[in-house]
């Protein structure tokens, strides 16, 4: 099974966190309004949701799926790639309806074990970088970025 290296994940976390920190001052109200940022009792929490997580893993593991509209699931769409979303394919949509919207849609069977293992690896890396975090699912959670923002003097 292929996995991206820890270095790539750490780099991506650092890039996202640096981007967020640089844009925090100018966009704080927008982040709060969208539910991305929660400020409470002097703490700054970031909500993250890895959009199209399952579809991205499938495209990573099978290069023939890259750039093509795919949906994960059987009977009901669990998630859809960005290419499929352009056609209106969404989570919780019956696959029959999704195929009507996107005739070239490739439906891929769910591989829960693979997604959960990859999510666990990402969560372990988040724990190494940030002290306080709470995971709400395999691809979503809240992280306390207070110290990171303060140490970067943002």
Walk me through this protein's architecture.
This protein has 154 residues and is of the alpha+beta class. The protein is 47% helix and 21% strand. The protein has 6 helices and 7 strands; from the N terminus they run αββαββααβαββα. The strands form 2 sheets. The chain has a 4-stranded antiparallel beta sheet. Helix 1 packs across helix 5. The longest helix has 28 residues. It is elongated. The N terminus is likely disordered.
Number of strands: 7
- Which word captures the global form? elongated
Oligomer: single chain
Query: What share of the residues does DSSP label as strand, in percent?
Result: 15-25%
Number of helices: 6
Mean of the pLDDT scores? 80
> How do the strands line up in the largest sheet?
1-2-7-6
Helix/strand order = HEEHEEHHEHEEH
Alpha-carbon Rg, integer: 17 Å
The profile of the biggest β sheet is: 4 strands, antiparallel
| Structural class by SSE content | alpha+beta
Gap between N and C termini, in Å? Answer: 39 Å
Q: Roughly how much helix do the residues carry, as a percent range?
A: 40-55%
Low-confidence stretches: 1-11
């Amino acid at each position: 099974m292929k996995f991206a290296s820890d270095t790539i994940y750490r780099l991506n976390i650092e890039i996202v966190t640096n981007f967020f920190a640089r844009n925090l001052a100018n966009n704080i109200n927008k982040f709060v309004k969208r539910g991305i940022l929660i400020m409470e009792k002097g703490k700054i929490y970031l909500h993250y949701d890895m959009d199209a997580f399952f579809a991205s893993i499938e495209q990573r593991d099978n290069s023939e799926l890259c750039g093509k509209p795919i949906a994960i699931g059987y009977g009901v769409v669990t998630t859809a790639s960005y290419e499929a979303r352009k056609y209106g394919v969404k989570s919780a949509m019956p696959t029959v309806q999704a195929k009507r919207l996107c005739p070239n849609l490739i439906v891929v069977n769910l591989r829960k074990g693979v997604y959960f293992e990859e999510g666990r690896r990402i969560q372990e890396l988040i724990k190494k970088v940030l002290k306080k975090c709470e995971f709400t699912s395999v691809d979503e959670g809240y992280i306390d970025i207070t110290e990171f923002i303060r140490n970067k003097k943002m």
